[in-house]
Batch of 2 targets.
Target 1
Amino acid sequence: MSIETRTSIVWDYAPAPESADHIRVRERYGLFIDGDFKDPADGRYVPTINPATEEPIAEVAYGGPDDVTAAVESARAAQPKWAALRDLERAKYLFRIARLIQERARELAVVETLDGGKPLRESRDVDIPLAAAHFFHYAGWADKLCYGVNAREVRPLGVVGQIVPWNFPLLMAAWKLAPALACGNVAILKPAETTPLTALLLAEICQEAELPPGVVSILPGNGDTGAALVREKDISKIAFTGSTAVGREIQAALAGTHTRLTLELGGKSANIVFEDAALDQAVEGIVNGIFFNQGHVCCAGSRLLIQESVHDEVIGKLWQRMGRLRVGDPMDKNTDVGAINSAEQLERIETLVAAGEDEGANRRTIACDLPERGYWFAPTLFTDVSPAHRIAIEEIFGPVVSVLTFRTQAEAIEKANNSRYGLAAGIWTDKGSKAFEVASALKAGVVWQNTYNHFDPTAAFGGYKESGFGREGGPAGLRPYLQVVR
Ligand code: NAD
């Protein structure tokens, strides 16, 4: 006789798809210049694809050099009036944008998920609310700028060019635009080629907020559009978030010019689990650290460092927890891991995972039914990784975690710092003193204790070493958009 116990019940979820009926996506988007959508000078439109279905969503203009020049001219004309507004007036526009993002939150979340492949739960609960929070936060700073820079007298830089990647499209746009505008600058934003849509909806929001024409321009396009923006002479500053390789090119292009630069680049962040940590909590943090947004996160905890004495226990719990991750339709509200953002990114992940296997690491990938169309990669765990393996060194930017071990605190610090990057780190321990000691020895811009991937508009974010320079968020995020007069 078999006895059914509660633990033998297999729980499953009914499908919970979000509807896309309420969204307003146009068939075609021009370039947002001088407060309106305009055709590109060379007439080039390129479809943007849903990576979960490979179906086109809309056609989007690509900005060429003439369009970039037109945007700069409109921005230059707008900047003196924008900077001359009373600080509280500028703040009002930022508040309006924040409120309009909140009003259109459901629509923005769906469009973010359709265009980029991230689970709706994340765009709805993280990307869009945080984007609104950034505008609220910097609206509050607009009339307190001097207090953000030690009570010095400050003035704006002028026209700034901002280039963002595809992993947090609207959120990265908010990180860039909100502090720049609060400081009295005007901005030209270049979204990434695979995810331009929420930036274009933000252009509509700027219109709804009656932002003066030229204060924000949005120029979708590819790397050539970004490079044309970097080459513009009349730009006071470039703020770039993206890969270290492109960051290096931009830095070389700007060497010897008057244009200021901040770079937010890649990472290979260490997530360190000590034997005295609350291990179940740590496992949740490991999962959030690497599988959030399919691992397309610059600060992802992609190098997991586990103290040897608890290695087997942590790996056992982690593997069990990974088995419960739901991979698939990003529009389903129960989905944990959505689609890989593009065919190129999928290929990059596959290449590095193959290198991990070739170099002798032990690969485990969870079994799951993946949709036939679209770009997918199931959550993957590598153990027996040596610090010399490519998967321990290079940014995979996918749902793949590489596990290394350590015996002592000193070894943990040495291994964590053994990277050309220095963006973030996580420390899991019950001892506050140990967390402080390790955190101050780590060369990482952000260090989380007993949590991971926790973002807040009031906190500074940025890197060391090849993860870039400059800070975004909080009062530190004002500094790169201001010059100190005295
Ligand atoms: P990418 O460098 O290929 O592209 C980023 C942006 O730069 C895109 O808009 C692209 O069109 C543009 N671009 C490409 N070539 C250019 C050029 N020569 N001149 C000017 N612009 C150019 O990066 P990606 O693949 O879109 O994004 C992934 C990378 O971004 C990862 O390395 C990730 O770690 C990094 N990232 C960093 C942060 C951070 O805050 N540090 C945040 C998110 C992503």
Target 2
Amino acid sequence: MKDAANPTIYLKDYTPPSWLVEDVHLTFRLSPKATRVVSRVRFVPNAAVSDRSFFLEGEELSLIWARIDGQEVTPDITPQGLSCDVPEGPFTWEAEVEISPATNTALEGLYMSNGMYSTQCEAQGFRKITYYPDRPDVMAPFTVRIESDLPVLLSNGNKGDTGEGFAEWHDPWPKPAYLFALVAGELVNLPGDFTTRSGNKVELNIWVRPGDEDKCDFALEALKKSMVWDEEVYGREYDLDIFNIVAVDDFNMGAMENKGLNIFNSSAVLANARTATDANFERIEAIIAHEYFHNWTGNRITCRDWFQLCLKEGLTVFRDAQFTADMRSEPVKRISDVLDLRGRQFREDGGPLAHPVRPESFQEINNFYTATVYEKGAEVIGMLKRLVGDDAYARALDLYFDRHDGQACTIEDWLKVFQDATGRDLSQFKRWYSQAGTPKVVMSEAWQGDQFSVTLKQVLPATPGQSDKKPQVIPFAIGLLDRTGQEVVPTTLLELVEEEQTFTFNGLEARPVASPLRGFSAPVILERETSKADQVFLLAHDTDPFNRWEAGRQLAKSALMEMIGNGAPPDADYLDALRQLVTDDTLDPAFRALCMGLPSEDDLAQSFADMGRTPDPQAIWEGREVMRAAMAEVLSSDLMPLYDRHLVRAPYRPDAEQSGKRSLNNALLSLITRRDGGAVAQGQFADAGNMTQQMGALSALLANDLGSLELASFAEQWAHERLVMDKWFMIQVAHARPDLAAQVADALTQRPDFAMTNPNRFRAVFGALAMNQAGFHHDSGAGYRLMADWLIKLDPVNPQTTARMCSAFQTWRRYDADRQGMIRDELLRISALKGLSRDTGEMVGRILGD
Ligand code: PHE
Ligand code: ZN
């Protein structure tokens, strides 16, 4: 797309910076509408570059004055920044600018949220704070002075001088500007401490608004666990005297890893048993770990440029997944991650927004904080580890930290470390970073004499801007079972490197049952002719828990497709196998709960599209309802005994054991409610001592068109807890009947406690609408219209959140001509807006495919 104001940036155009920064001093005089920022920056020429031109990024700043080596200068200013004549050698740049945090609703740069000051600088927000080389390959130590009457004044690094109305901070570790942070407000803290294994004592704090002190304990414990884990598993210690975490209500993302001062969306840190669900606790533990782990993978070693985003994000997601698997259950974590990968990343990879794990161009980098960069980026590292083995992975990581500490690196640096540590040539493997799209692996089997052979063929789909793709390296874990369920060949890693290859197993007594792609060893779509009998067998016997779950999933999916597409009745064999599994008390309740989940509406819609059939959202919704009714029927005599057996009577703990039982019980409850008119769910709602049970009951009721009294009493009980009220907004839209979803969402937006300036609240309503597939795609078009109306309203306020929400439309090409026409009209209505943000403009343009 040609657009002068929004140029496309290319990886191939990267050039190193002309000037490097030796150190930075910043002084902030805080004031809501007129904050002054004084900067003093020591620049030195980059000897590796001959070009000496000088440009500092800066947006929406009023320059008060600027000096070079003490002499006032008059730079050339554009909306993107300033340029200026500068000396040939080192010099000191000083400038004062004025900014207005109180009117900054984009939540990028310095902004105010509920009376507190906060910053968000990744990726390119620092340029909204002052003029600076706002690029990650310019790293420097920062000294910060904050002047304000507010009681708590925080920035990166260690504490410096403090006194009446000011505080100073010094961060000795060179960092890029995107890791800068400042927080000021009337905050209270939960303090803690941690002693590193080499004996350094670290002060820890969770900072929150008064009233939230009772929701910090869990985050503090999660932080300590993360610190221990990174020492034990990766040999990484913390490197400052203090580590602060701050909760902010208005935040575009989950959290941010600013050096020594992590800033969190309050939803990703605040929790107690009464206000947060088990799923919230688990997510908080994972995000605390994720941000903490960034201290090494992201901060000490950062990215050379934003195309390398997966260098820090893929690796850090991989590390936090390892952590969660260690803290909780490995198979449960793997299954949840694969559900998420298929639900978000495969969906992205299969449509107009598909892009490589390392993109090659962008207009707005904020649009590339995607499931592909994060989750597929983590899968790529998982594959690398599988291919080289655990020991070699550990050696490679040690080498990575040794060799690159303090540097801004690329994917080439990362892969070179693995090549040097293992001697393995990774040039083919590197295609995972450059080729977009989810590979399909077609598997066929043959049996002859005592030989079982497996033929694998990889098919790489065309994606926007990429057609002719070359074979990738696909690690394919497989095990073979005999008819009694004994493993005759334990998990073996096949490496598919050609387009098509055959692998043979000799000396077998009888034809085995294959258990392919164990543990989901590669992020691919496996296509395989297989009998229902084999799937039922694997569901009952597979020794690989992931594949056991997967077998049930495939059975459920085929059954649903037959019901929806061909009017078949619910599959009795599947239901019977499911019943066996769900009632088997030797199995982890969390695992059983996952097995009770049906493929999502979106997943089914995609499967129809893959078969060349146009998905019918209403029929898909009805099919799942019929299947649920059949599940309730088949399990009818088991439901209450199972529920009673798994009721947790011990005091609430958000650990894997208890939360597994509660998730099983909530899954059972939704079936029970189908049959009993709501009595048990009403009871659970009334007695609930924790949010997991309260929400579980409410959602079971709403899913069955019951629960209006409970909904009202919930709102009354929690009116003053915004995070809990977000759940209340969300759940109504999520469970609204298809013909009412848009209406329900619309009514919610008219409430006085709906505020589009708060991304959590906006997402509660519109994220839920997008997830309610039958409602969003209702043939009236009301869902599309409401979504577009609000994206149009939100864009001038908060472009980042608007752009992310546009992905609701990314699957539009799957649908029938009427729906496509309606969606296209809405997308065109958005793109025609005067002053549309670069963020939203790029997203809508890519979705439309121009
Ligand atoms: N870097 C953050 C993380 O992954 C995410 C983030 C990106 C937050 C951009 C804010 C803005 O942990
Ligand atoms: Zn991250």
